[in-house]
Amino acid sequence: MDCRSSMESTETLRNKCAACYKQFNKMEHLVEHMKISYHSGHEPTCGVCKKHCRSFESLREHLIGPLPKQECKNIFSVRGCRFCLMILENPNARRIHQERCQFSSVNAGLTTRMAALGIRDKAMIDYTSSRSPKVVALACTTVGGGSDGSLDLCARVCITDESDNVVFHTYVKPSMAVTNYRYEKTGIRLENIRDAMPLKHAQRKIQEFLCNGEPMWKIRPRGGKGRILVGHGLEHDLDRLQLEYPSSMTRDTAKYPPLMKTSKLSNSLKYLTQAYLGYDVHVGIQDPYEDCVATMRLYTRMRYQKHKIEAYPLAADAHNHSNQVAWRQNEVERMSPNEMLSISRSDYYCWCLDSLA
Length: 357
Description:
Blueprint: H1 2-14, H2 27-37, H3 56-64, H4 70-79, H5 91-101, H6 110-116, E1 135-145, E2 151-160, E3 166-173, E4 178-180, H7 183-186, H8 190-193, E5 197-198, H9 199-211, E6 228-231, H10 234-240, E7 250-252, H11 269-276, H12 288-303, H13 318-322, H14 329-332, H15 337-343
Parallel strand pairs: 1-6, 3-5, 6-7
Antiparallel strand pairs: 1-2, 1-4, 2-3
Helix pairs in contact: 11-12
């Protein structure tokens, strides 16, 4: 009996996923799991037990959720940063790190500061500056159109760089009548947009700035002139601006798998900012500058995650497509779980790859 139990235990360990630690009765089941899970070194990982999680929300649940892994919870409570979820060497290192990891709010006195700086309406963009940003954040404020005021119309747009500087900011005159200014949320009145920049004019300026002198078809993430565009719900904002921009150049915090609530459900920007940056947004009037800063900070935090450098990091890379022979059942079943993980690749573009561009 002891010998049989030992053999069963060994077999169970052999059929255990090296990433998420799920156990399977048969090796073929583990192989199928690895084929569809797309585990990789780009997934959020527990600093204690090294378990891979699909998102930071899953990692948070693993560490401090209702049913956490107790050993990991105990260590995290003493040495873990509650913002980036990193495990530090000791409590003092945790204290110092966490103070640096938490951002301060940009909302206090924002309108006054912007007016004092002369950027209440910064409608000109410097395209020629040698310090012209490669990465920018965009956010819109919408008012209501249509008979019931439910149609979103862009009435204000802001673009910032990685240092929270305003690159472009203007009120926008919608192309159709406004029936609901949503003042309690937007702070916008008729006088703000009566003589504002027409939507088509704003659209053209932003498009030219993003493309940076490069035709749309030629824009690419690496080696090109086009700018990386960061935002939250970018598809909606670009649609309201009637703008098109390559998806390969957009970084949307609402759709980035490590920042999502589930595989199909996004977290709000308010939650992400509170949980991962340590301050509140959308308290009172929602300002597009505040949204730009929050999304850029989230992007920067994700971009500078330290992951293993791989020649072909995506499952969709042509090299990995042609290398599917590596996943032939009879060959993979002879591999150990760690060997399977070493050839597994991510099914999403990790933002850390932008730092290599």
